[in-house]
Amino acid sequence: MNIVFTFRPPRTIQADIQRKFSEESFSFYKNIKEANDVLQDAEIIVTFGTDLTEDIIGQCRSLKWIMVASAGIEDMPLGAIEDRDIFVTTSRGIHKIPMAEFTLGLMLNHVKRFPELSVLEKSETWNKELPLQELAGKEVAILGTGAIGQEIARLCKAFRMTTAGVNRSGRSVDEFDRIFQMSELEEAVKEADFVIGVLPSTPETVGVLHREHFEAMKQTAAFISIGRGDVVSEHILLSAINDEEIAHAYLDVFALEPLPEGHPFWRHGNMTVTPHISSITKAYIPRAMAIFEHNLICFKEGGDYQNILDIRKGY
């Protein structure tokens, strides 16, 4: 079986996979351009997804399965993949630990005011009057109650916070004190001290946050966006900050990435920008490869796959 990687995992991981599946033929390339000459014979492609195009799918005449080593698939040529009846699995769920920790770090940063304390330290200023807060007793509204949202809620509960979740169905989910449907979004955010966006990018979620949602939030609330940057338009978010409808926005994802130099988000005093990094740790590739190895066994021998993509739903 010809298996082509369009990225190179660490050499130790490459060797481990080849040892476990010695009967298969593996090719590891730095990018999909380097793999061009072997794509037509590839039966399985392992990719981050963003390098696939309709032309490439057409070129892959033997392709049966795409393993996406990420969770987001919005940039993939899903129509062409569906037309060919190509099987797709993702790495959904591997992000929950790093992204939840990253989110809790931002929340603690917000209430403990570490950036301001750092400024005081550098200026050798002893100021014990800087008012600090606690997470305990505060409420968090998490838009998206999947693996990532649930892990964030679990950690928030450990900090004695109240957790509200928002999903399509309104069904109850572990670690959430209350659940709201998407149609109840305004009600869900109005008591929250933190509003966290972890929704995937689908036709239903693009632009889901409107001006009235920010108007309904507490003026002291912080908005944290770590899912996809298109859940709210930049104009609406900037207006909400400038009009002091919320206190601060922590943004790790954007509609256009990289965020261009000179963009108003970079220098805004009430916005914190990070470079879509919340999910990236040294454990990322090993976790993705564990899912790939499990699914490869299922592909060869049968069994229950992890993270089968429903192309029509987009996740």
Please tell me about this protein's structure.
Belongs to the D-isomer specific 2-hydroxyacid dehydrogenase family. The protein folds into two domains: 2-94 and 282-301, NAD(P)-binding Rossmann-like Domain (Rossmann fold, 3-Layer(aba) Sandwich); 96-273, Rossmann fold (3-Layer(aba) Sandwich). With 315 residues, it is of the alpha/beta class. Helix 4 crosses helix 6 (147-158). The chain is built from eleven helices and twelve strands. It is elongated and about 65 Å long. Helix 3 (78-83) links the parallel strand 4 (65-68) and strand 5. It has helices spanning 11-20, 54-59, 78-83, 96-112, 114-122, 147-158, 185-189, 211-216, 234-242, 264-267, 284-301, and strands at 2-5, 25-28, 44-47, 65-68, 87-89, 139-143, 162-167, 178-181, 194-197, 222-225, 248-251, 271-273.
